[in-house]
Amino acid sequence: MRKINIKRETFETQIDLEINLDGTGKSEIKTEVGFFNHMLELFARHGSFDLKCEANGDIDVDYHHLVEDTGIVLGEAIKKALGDKRGIKRYGTFYIPMMETLTRTSLDLSGRGFLSFNCEFEKEKVGEFDTELVEEFFYSVASNAGINLHMDLIRGHNTHHIIESFFKSFARALKEACIIEGTQIPSTKGII
């Protein structure tokens, strides 16, 4: 099983996260930020990943450190759970329609972290959650997991729908890329 637990403590946050890439979509999420909890639950369910995450932080300042550091830890966990990536499909692309919204996520588990995030949110917040943190979260995940990650808003205007669609499309693209389809390391270099 590709399962890992990572803990991270700083002066700003305390995070304990466990992911099983070969799970069934179960989640136990406690981050002090309701909307973020919902997005992580969606990620687990739609990727069929088992995810436990308890995250506390200086949310009296704002949600930035908590969201960013959770992305860092999730990225590290994905990277460690994949191991040497032997046999994985490596690439994944998924479109998610949600009412008027359509997003696309395309990724490569290349070992080289990069994010291209093509979306300008019309609103600065969903409830109390700053929409700029969506890009920050995915940047942290991509950088720490070594994922070449491209996320595009194709159409849509409802901010909640857009963010939810991004989390779902990322989950499904990652699920596809993590599929074991052989025994070789999928690279002409011999390592990823």
Briefly characterize the structure:
The chain has four helices and ten strands; from the N terminus they run βββαβαβββββαβα. It is α+β, with helices and mostly antiparallel strands and 192 residues long.
Features:
192 residues; alpha+beta; 4-stranded mixed beta sheet; 4 helices
Question: Would you give an account of this structure?
Answer:
This protein has 192 residues and is of the alpha+beta class. It has a single domain (3-178), classed as Imidazole glycerol phosphate dehydratase, domain 1 (Ribosomal Protein S5, domain 2). Helix content is 35%, strand content 31%. It is built from four helices and ten strands. Helix 1 (34-47) links the parallel strand 3 (27-30) and strand 4 (50-57). Helix 1 packs parallel to helix 4 and helix 2 packs parallel to helix 3. The longest helix has 20 residues, at 159-178. The radius of gyration is 16 Å and the shape is globular. The mean pLDDT is 97.
Strand fraction equals 25-35%
As for the CATH topology, it is Ribosomal Protein S5, domain 2
What series of H and E elements makes up the topology? Answer: EEEHEHEEEEEHEH
Q: How can the largest sheet be summarized?
A: 4 strands, mixed
Q: How many structural domains?
A: 1
Q: Report the end-to-end length measured between terminal Cα atoms.
A: 20 Å
Q: Name the structural class.
A: alpha+beta
Q: Report the principal-axis shape.
A: globular
Poorly predicted sequence stretches spanning 5 or more consecutive residues: none
> What is the spatial order of strands in the main beta sheet?
1-2-4-3
Counting DSSP H or I runs of 4 or more residues, the number of helices is: 4
For the residues shown, what is the average pLDDT? 97
CATH architectural designation: 2-Layer Sandwich
How many beta-strand elements?
10
Please identify which CATH superfamily we are dealing with.
Answer: Imidazole glycerol phosphate dehydratase, domain 1
